[in-house]
Task: inverse folding
């Protein structure tokens, strides 16, 4: 059987190539990366998404009229039902639960925005502006 092709290390920003059976280069192999189970990172209440968050979430969805307020939908003039609330500046980058940092968002838009943020790495984000 031919050897697996080399592929990039999964650590953000690393350009090292690793064999197909490995995920990280030697430099990043020991780092604790990726999603952790709830038993390690805490359940949703421990992470700040308990009853207070549920009330705040409902308030933001009402404030935004239940319409997705993501940058792409605003730019395209697209109207989509919002079922989730997004941190404009992610909590991982010092974003807060302040209503000014929260925006109603469609599930598919939320998934796409989160994926873009992961690909971009840890670069600081500016708050998206617009109506």
Result:
């Amino acid at each position: 059987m031919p050897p697996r092709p080399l592929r990039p290390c999964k650590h953000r920003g690393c350009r090292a190539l690793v064999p197909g059976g490995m995920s990280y280069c030697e430099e990043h192999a020991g780092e604790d990366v990726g999603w952790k189970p709830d038993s390690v990172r805490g359940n949703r209440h421990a992470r700040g998404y308990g009853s207070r968050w549920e009330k705040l979430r409902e308030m933001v969805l009402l404030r935004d009229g239940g319409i997705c307020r993501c940058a792409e939908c605003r730019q395209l003039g697209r109207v989509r039902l919002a079922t989730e609330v997004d941190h404009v500046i992610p909590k991982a980058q010092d974003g807060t639960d302040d209503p000014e940092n929260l925006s109603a968002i469609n599930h598919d838009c939320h998934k796409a925005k989160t994926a873009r943020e992961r690909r971009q790495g840890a670069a600081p984000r500016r708050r998206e502006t617009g109506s």
Observations:
- The two ends are 57 Å apart (CA to CA).
- Residues 13 and 77 are 34 Å apart (CA to CA).
- The chain has a mean pLDDT of 84.
- The chain has two domains: 1-29, 51-120.
